[in-house]
Amino acid sequence: MKKTILFIVLLLISSCKKDQDDDFDIAVNENLEVEDFVYKAMNTFYYWQEDVPNLADSKFDNDKQYTDFLQSFNNPFDLFENLTHLEDRFSNITDDYISFTKKLQSISLSNGMHFGLTITSELEGTVIGYVRYVIPGSDADIKGIKRGDIFTHVNQTLLNLNNYSELLFSNMPRYSVSLAILENSEFKPTGITVTLNNTEQEEKELYLSKTMLHEGKKVGYLVYNGFNDLQDDDLINVFTTFDNEDIDELVIDLRYNPGGSVASSQLFAGLIAGEHAGEEFGRLVFNNKLKSENSSIEIIDSNIHLGLSRVFFITTQNTASASEMLINGLNPYINTVQIGGVTVGKNVGSSPIYDIIDTEGTLNPNHSWMLLPIMFKIFNSQGLSNYANGLVPNISISEELGNFGTLGSPDEPLLEKALSVISGRVLVTNAISPKSTRSIFKEIQLEPGLALKTTPKR
Q1: Are 263 and 271 spatial neighbours (Cβ–Cβ below 8 Å)?
Q2: How do beta strands 217-224 and 206-214 pair?
Q3: Phi-psi label, residue 185: left if phi above 0, alpha if psi -120 to 50, beta otherwise
Q4: Last residue of a domain, one of 169, 202, 235
Q5: CA within 20 to 30 Å of 240's CA: 179, 181, 267, 419, which one?
Q6: How many structural domains does the chain have?
Q7: pLDDT band at 158 (very low <50, low <70, confident <90, very high)
Q8: Does 40 share its domain with 152?
Q9: 279-300 average pLDDT score
Q10: For position 346, what pLDDT does the model report?
């Protein structure tokens, strides 16, 4: 499937450029080469192409109209925004496909500290950072940063809505964070400041795996932070271990997983529910121009048959895309118990679109722009794709500042809740968690569109 989709993309781009350039070639001569690429890619691949008036095939009568339209925008970003549908929360564009492609491969400039940001209703405009997890062996790990740490200042500057982006996301070689603790809903400085150095590193998306004995049952547990098919062997190895250890229950922790490769999600389904190999896992539905590419994806025969009657998924508002596809795709075949928060609601997918200038796959040397437009909608075998507002957990519970716990520890609140269901102390219902310290906070979305890691390719 991976090779097939990439091949389709190559053929369609080169075909699209050849056919349309024959009609509208003034754009290139007017230094609008990037805009020309953006428009034609969106006109061909965009899922909502028929619903965007400016992408209509009848929009232009001649090349002058087409060129004038492209010239009316200040830059390719503005053009791209104009061509997106109101329902689209996820399409993306970049002028640096090298960095973007590395990100898709789990390679980025990082100090190893993965964090979230919140604002408080009591301190309007003040931004608080908190550490979700730290990459083992990274600079943050070496310097003692740990899950649950809170920071209020970066480079001695108090974080707020106006400066947090520049202070934390400007790819500086280093920055310092000033730590704080939460007491009685107040943030108190600890007096500790840590300087963190950014370096390019590849992150292992399989963050943690273990088998624990809980009240006489063997429970397999893993934290998986991104669907990267270049790291599929890690998944296969851990499930081989689970199979050899004859686990009784399985808990998949996707709380920080924004998605990734559809192929990896397909493999994951085969590892969890190998007994259903050959059954339909999902359907990808493209726009009318590409409807011949609508496809059915089967559950892979992984040769691992755990024999489970149910699987637990831990989710939060950071869980998206291929993660949601996995849960939705398995629902018809196995009892899925979702614990945590409502997911993002990304029931659509993308594939990187580069400006390819020939059938050999040669990239246009004149620019480094790349698109990641929504190209298809995702359904399960029952035709269900009704989670645009997120998948709702069976048991609702939030992570709490000041009580994050340790990932993989039986007393970490979300895992503890799953273990309580396994032991029979908690029934599976749609419940609202008790009011917590997080109730005074509002999460800041750090990954606009969550499209950076959503691909059916490779």
Answers
A1: no
A2: antiparallel
A3: left
A4: 202
A5: 419
A6: 3
A7: very high
A8: no
A9: 96
A10: 97
Encoded tokens for 37? 């690429």
The helix/strand/coil state of 315 is: strand
Q: Give a yes or no: residue 453 inside a domain.
A: no
**Could you tell me whether strands 335-340 and 395-396 are parallel, antiparallel, or unpaired per DSSP bridges?**
parallel
H-helix or E-strand containing 98? helix 97-104
Distance CA 218, CA 434 (A): 29
The reply to whether 197 and 210 lie within a common domain is no
* Residue-number span of the structural domain to which 166 is assigned: 107-202
Dihedral angle over CA of 59, 74, 44, 17, nearest 10: 100
Q: Are 18 and 118 members of one domain?
A: no
DSSP-derived secondary structure letter, 368: -
CB-based contacts of 14, cutoff 8 Å, min separation 6: 356, 357, 358, 359
Amino acid (one-letter) located at 307: G
Confidence band (pLDDT; 50, 70, 90) for 105? confident
Q: Are 211 and 308 within one domain?
A: yes
pLDDT tens-digit series, residues 47-61 = 999 999 999 999 999
The angle subtended at Cα 102 by Cα 385 and Cα 325, nearest 5°, is 15
Note whether 248 and 334 are same-domain residues: yes
CB under 8 A, 24+ apart: contacts of 353-362: 353/9, 353/13, 353/41, 353/45, 354/13, 354/97, 355/13, 355/34, 355/37, 355/41, 356/10, 356/13, 356/14, 356/17, 357/14, 357/17, 358/14, 359/10, 359/11, 359/14, 361/10
Residues 378 and 365 in one domain: yes
Residues 6+ apart with CB under 8 A from 7: none
- Tokens at residue 398, please? 């939030």
CB neighbour class for 160 (10 Å; exposed up to 12, middle 13-18, buried from 19): middle
Q: Residue 196 CB: number of other CB atoms within 10 A?
A: 20
| CATH code (residue 338) | 3.90.226.10
Measuring CA to CA, which residue among 88, 89, 76 is closest to residue 38? 76
For the stretch 175-233, pLDDT in tens is 999 999 999 888 999 999 999 999 998 999 999 999 999 999 999 999 999 999 999 99
Residue 284 has pLDDT above 90, yes or no: yes
Q: Tell me whether strands 395-396 and 295-298 are parallel, antiparallel or unpaired.
A: unpaired
Does this model's pTM top 0.70?
A: yes
CATH code: domain of residue 179: 2.30.42.10
Average pLDDT over residues 246-267: 97
